[in-house]
Design brief:
The protein is an alpha+beta fold and 382 residues long. It has three domains: 127 residues, Rossmann fold, CATH 3.40.50.20; 151 residues, D-amino Acid Aminotransferase, Chain A, domain 1, CATH 3.30.470; 67 residues, Dna Ligase, domain 1 (2-Layer Sandwich), CATH 3.30.1490. It is built from 13 helices and 17 strands. Strands 12, 13, 14, 15, 16 and 17 form a six-stranded antiparallel sheet that branches. It has a four-stranded mixed sheet with strand order 3-2-1-7. It has a four-stranded antiparallel sheet with strand order 8-11-9-10.
Length: 382
């Protein structure tokens, strides 16, 4: 039986969301499959690593005394030697070889490519997108630049860095004056809609930039799409791509789909990683057949252009009147794997995680067949 290590938590603003994704959408279904030895590997907010079966239960985190519980566990050590071993402290140091890593680490120090780079160096198969795709997707500016170069349409946008704003606020406002209000201001590297603001005037714009730069050193400012229908499209595969349902966001009571709307009002809990998802989304999206197909195509195009593999979720903005579809963002680790959407598309939670593990191993085999070493006599001249 192969060992699958599910790594989650980490020093990220999306730490708590990561726990829910790992426990409800990954660890549970992997265990239900009966095919794997599942090892929960939790990274605390302070950066310490732990592994214990208790960490795979949501009750461990909801009682409010996580730090006290962690203090009773021994930290683990990791050994990277053309593979990954998890070593538990104690007599003899129990050592377990990991066959596949299933990342559940949303945000920085995980989904941004940090974890993927480590696993690539260690030659470990892992689920989801690789280092370069993860880095591109995590940077909203970079993902817009890459998709624009592939002729994938985006709404009008500009970006700036924190120092630029600090040094010349008036110059920044003049630069952004090229965009038409209302605008969306976003930290470039955060997910889960953290730090995002919708603004209608200059005062709100300044406040929004201050918020964005509280979380990040780079921000993106985008024009609002008119006649908007906001949709999201989960995509799965390496070369042979499959899309789930085109899902329409139903955020009628909020100006935009922020963190509270997503997670604090009937958010991602319970079976399939969702509780009351019908309250804020509709599947399939209420679009014409032409626009629906266009969304599927653009989602696949984005997946390919950014170099994704395994799984991702592509967020799109639809101008229903103009019949145009714009790329908004791509998420290489969809919250709770968007299991509710895949389930609606006929893929059960268990089938989803099994397929993702298979795709990870397939990609690793293909990469292992490539020659990355070049033999030379270069050093003999010294």
């Amino acid at each position: 039986m192969k060992t699958v290590a599910v790594i989650f938590g980490s020093r990220s603003a999306e730490h708590d969301v990561s726990i829910v994704t790992a426990v409800s959408a990954i660890i549970g279904p992997l265990k239900l499959s009966g095919k794997y030895n599942v090892m929960p590997v939790y990274i605390s907010k302070g950066g310490s690593w732990y592994s214990d079966d208790k960490l795979g239960e949501i009750d461990f985190y909801t009682s409010g005394d996580v730090d006290e519980k962690l203090a009773k566990l021994k930290k683990i050590s990791l050994k990277f030697d053309n593979g990954l071993w998890i070593i538990k402290a104690g007599l003899g140091g129990q050592k377990t070889h990991v066959d596949v890593v299933f990342p559940g680490t949303h945000g920085t120090y995980g989904e941004d490519g940090s974890l993927m780079g480590l696993l690539e160096m260690a030659n470990v198969p892992y689920v989801g997108c690789g280092l370069s795709a993860s880095t591109i997707a995590m940077d909203k500016v970079l993902s817009k630049q890459v998709t624009s170069s592939a002729d994938i349409p985006t709404n009008k946008w500009l970006w700036l860095n924190k120092q630029e704003f600090v040094d010349d606020e008036a110059g920044v406002l003049e630069k952004l004056d090229k965009l038409r209000m209302p605008l969306f201001v976003k930290p470039a590297h955060l997910g889960s809609s953290i730090g995002i603001s919708r603004v209608k005037n200059e005062k709100e714009l300044i406040n929004a930039l201050e918020v964005a730069f509280h979380y990040d050193d780079k921000a993106i400012v985008e024009e609002e799409v008119q006649n908007l229908v906001e949709v999201t499209v989960p995509v799965m595969g390496n070369d042979d791509l499959r899309v789930a349902m085109v899902e329409e966001t139903m955020n009628k009571d909020a100006e935009f789909f922020d963190f509270d709307t997503k997670y604090m009002q009937g958010g991602k809990k319970g079976k399939g990683g969702q509780k009351g998802s019908d309250n804020y989304s509709r599947m399939p999206a209420n679009l014409s057949k032409e626009l629906y197909k266009q969304c599927e195509k653009v989602a696949k195009d984005v997946f390919v252009a950014t170099g994704c593999s395994g799984i991702a979720r592509v967020d799109l903005l639809v101008d229903e009147k103009a019949k145009k579809v714009y790329f908004n963002e791509i998420n290489t680790l969809p919250g709770s794997l968007y299991a509710h959407n895949w389930s609606k598309a006929g893929v059960s939670n268990v089938e989803l995680v099994e397929r993702l593990v298979d795709l990870a191993q397939q990609r690793h085999r293909e990469h292992s067949a490539q020659n990355t070493v070049f033999k030379t006599n270069f050093l003999k001249q010294f």
